[in-house]
What we know:
Two copies of one chain form a homodimer. By secondary structure, the first copy, chain A, is α/β, with parallel strands linked by helices. In chain A, the strands form three sheets. A five-stranded parallel sheet of chain A has the order 1-5-6-7-8, sandwiched between helices. Chain A folds into three domains: 4-77, no CATH class; 113-153 and 247-539, TIM Barrel, CATH 3.20.20.140; 157-233, no CATH class. The longest helix of chain A is centred in the C-terminal third of the chain and has 24 residues, at 516-539. Helix content of chain A is 48%, strand content 9%. The first copy, chain A, is built from 21 helices and twelve strands. Chain A has helices at 4-19, 33-43, 60-77, 87-109, 120-128, 131-138, 155-161, 201-208, 210-220, 232-250, 253-269, 294-311, 330-346, 370-374, 399-405, 421-430, 438-443, 455-460, 481-491, 498-510, 516-539; strands spanning 142-144, 167-171, 178-183, 197-200, 272-279, 317-322, 351-354, 381-382, 385-386, 410-413, 433-436, 465-467. Chains A and B meet through helix 2, helix 3, helix 10, helix 14 and helix 15 of A and helix 2, helix 3, helix 10, helix 14 and helix 15 of B. Chains A, B: Residues 49-135 form the Adenosine/AMP deaminase N-terminal domain. Chains A, B: It is found in: Secreted.
Amino acid sequence: MLDRRNLIVLFAICLCMVLSPRPSLAARPRPNQSVMAELIKSYGPSYVVEPVVTQSRPSPEAYASLRNMFFRYEESKALGSDLQLNERELQANQIIMATKMQEYNEGLITPHLFKPSQHFFKVLENIKATDLFRYMSAMPKGAVLHAHDTAIGSTEYLIKLTYRDNLWVCQNVGGLEAESLVFSKNQPAQSSDSDCTWSLMSDVRTKYGGNAVDEYLAERLTLFPTTKFDDNNAAWQQFMTIFSLVNGLLFYAPVWADYYYNALEEFLADNVQYVEFRTTLPVLYDLEDTQYTEVDTVRIYVETLKKFKDAHSDFIGSRMIYAPLRNTNGSVVSDYIKTLLTITELYPDFVAGFDLVGQEELGRPLKEFISELLAVPESIDFYFHAGETNWYGSSVDENLIDAVLLGTKRIGHGFALVKHPFVLEMLKKLNVAIEVNPISNQVLQLVTDFRNHPCSHFFADGYPVVISSDDPSFWKATPLSHDFYIAFLGIASAHSDLRLLKKLALNSIRYSSLTVDQQYDALSKWQPKWDAFIEYVITGTQRSAAPSLKLA
Amino acid sequence: MLDRRNLIVLFAICLCMVLSPRPSLAARPRPNQSVMAELIKSYGPSYVVEPVVTQSRPSPEAYASLRNMFFRYEESKALGSDLQLNERELQANQIIMATKMQEYNEGLITPHLFKPSQHFFKVLENIKATDLFRYMSAMPKGAVLHAHDTAIGSTEYLIKLTYRDNLWVCQNVGGLEAESLVFSKNQPAQSSDSDCTWSLMSDVRTKYGGNAVDEYLAERLTLFPTTKFDDNNAAWQQFMTIFSLVNGLLFYAPVWADYYYNALEEFLADNVQYVEFRTTLPVLYDLEDTQYTEVDTVRIYVETLKKFKDAHSDFIGSRMIYAPLRNTNGSVVSDYIKTLLTITELYPDFVAGFDLVGQEELGRPLKEFISELLAVPESIDFYFHAGETNWYGSSVDENLIDAVLLGTKRIGHGFALVKHPFVLEMLKKLNVAIEVNPISNQVLQLVTDFRNHPCSHFFADGYPVVISSDDPSFWKATPLSHDFYIAFLGIASAHSDLRLLKKLALNSIRYSSLTVDQQYDALSKWQPKWDAFIEYVITGTQRSAAPSLKLA
Lengths: 552, 552
């Protein structure tokens, strides 16, 4: 096999021979020099007056080898192409590619049935039934690096939580519609800014029947099944009402710990071994009116994580990015940073860095908080959301530039990056990863057909990408497997294979906030699962070496 | 003003100072060397074990000037940024940008009302009512370089043609539905592959009423108002039925000449002064059973063009690209090429080159005709359709590579180019223009929201782009102004201004098949219109220097 450098040199030589600029023999007379001079004078040097390059035609044989080299060179630029698969991996690759190409080729015949061309809500169950999803699910995918803590537990688990004692629900008159939830010994006081009235959830279940309430909640706690909102603002509005409903449920201190523990369990079951989540760090509450602070929230996380790791030796770990709401002013951001410093000092192993969250388009752009952000010590890292928009040239779009200039370690979303080739160049140079959340982008109305997702470009040109799931709970997705299915079948090239998948898993560790030594340990927990996965693909059975490898 | 090279150098220096890789002081200990070695061994050198770059934070002042430079550098890469506007142009630019930003800013508040975020059919009339469209319409846009000859005349004119004597229509029983049209002295023979029956169009008008027939035809001759087809195959199917209906009408020799003459008139009225169209070169017919050949079709074009140019001194001209159907085999392609040689020899000033047309996805890819295409003499140029697809990695997608390797002068569509960064690089190096047809791409179901059109990337990175209209008649669009409106407001950055518009007009001449001397003459017809346009924008009135500048 030609090594990459030789390939490129060889290719460059051939290309120069064949495609070198030379005017064609007949059609294009050399232009009059005074005409050229005048054109340049009127329309600038960019009005290049040289005739468009004319090429000499190669022989069919020369063409065929040139073409072959072009394809190999193009492929060598794609994400994952630098990985060398071993023999077992090559075998597994054949099986996975056959599975992928079957779906792809069916899609060529009936494009409207191709799952990644449709809205996720229409196909999420069908996806689960595919062989390809079975592989995506069984594959150890490494880490989730972009997820919001109150949107990572399954709907089923959320509903289970609503069966706990002392839960009250605030409803509008005469219907099931729930506005907020809260745990309380007694009926909560009527809020001044809402007409809803409080009842015990248990009473509501008695009145409407448990099934009806559960069914209502199952819909109310996700964006499902609405595929078309007026626009992304409308989608976000609906999206935010879910957060405000779950908040009262989750911010209850005993639930907070359990919810996190359960989410880690669900992620591990989906073969995700490390979770780096964003949190607004809510102040928790309980029935005893205990006065909690943000520090307690972090403490509960750390304690719960310890418990979880003790019980799951194959789990790598979890860290948090403090990511409070961006729709605020500079003085509040300064307060955020004080909190950030406090928690980083207390829990340096758990706090990975800082971000700001909330719909970029309606919040404040990074540029408004530059002086506050520059005051953050250099030892604390940024992981900014940026470019989750399709408004090219807006202040939101420009967050991409500020994120890079502020030294962000990763870009959250970066949907608008194709509109900023120089930012892209910088990302490669500075090795800043792009956290791509395919399903989130579709549900929140940035893209309709996944085949047009800008991540195709990132894959093609080998940008450092990690695939993540953002808020899987709110779109009824599995913790990460659905996003991998979409990325692999719908966004990547038909030719992208196991090397891309492996690269995405490796990237998720590589671009995590873990130190290199920690990454080494992390990979030593990932590698046996990967080996077992390869055997599973080849033989269809699970090897004992990977105890928690759960097959869908 | 800093010149571009100085700006870049200055910028690079600052960037290196601020963003140079250096490990942060506290958080990231240098990794253990043996760990690094082992990671590289297991996961390849690409698993770069250096910690992700940590940057030192600049002062707010340094940040502000760095940011400013970043923006200026980014802007300097965008298409049109190299043009220097004169004083009058700067004045006009302010007015045009105010008009653009009003629509853009309204869009930020109510995205679902932003016209480029919607389907063109829903907004085409509203667009016409905007001030911005008025400017797009009045602007001398140079040339249309991508249009198909039987889809460039307005529906109104097509209907007018159906009033001519001896026109027969083949209808299914009991309805208006028309399957084909043909001019004939007597009732045409029943076709064996259809059940429709022939009636004189004049009789049908008497039977159903002229208005009813005209209304039916107005709908039947466009894809309007269907905004959502099952998929792009379904859209293409419907699209092809329009071609098959108009063919019988247009291939009638006397109509052929008149249709072309009228189309040139409509394009000129829309301030398009040059038209480089693709044609399948149909063999024409008349009532006298004259035996026509492809050469006659070209001859009629050339004669008609001469007549048109004699009557319109401000018109630059028109050339044809011979572009027969791709859904065929190699031996037919060889026949195509014989025809190509014949017509090129007879009409070297009118025949610009060669292409293949028809839905790429259902036709044959270029790679199947390599040996035939390589046999074409180097003096004849290619202008290939390529990448009009969202199937990444399919054989259609790969047409982009063959088009470049075959030495195409321009790429027709290139919708899939963002998935081929190396092809993009080659286009820049070889100065091959991309013919972007925004509305066509949406109507034929490749993109829904124009803000996601890949041409944003081409604009941002300064690729040689021309904006064209493909088949404006079939989507009830003006010859070019609607596509310019969409490109300028919906695809380009909010910051893109008159320089982009001027560049697009210049590019359309620059990347035409005209020789440099001809381009010089072309620009001497374009420049006075441009000057008049600038005055019109500033003063709101038309200058006499540009006789045919028609304001919408």
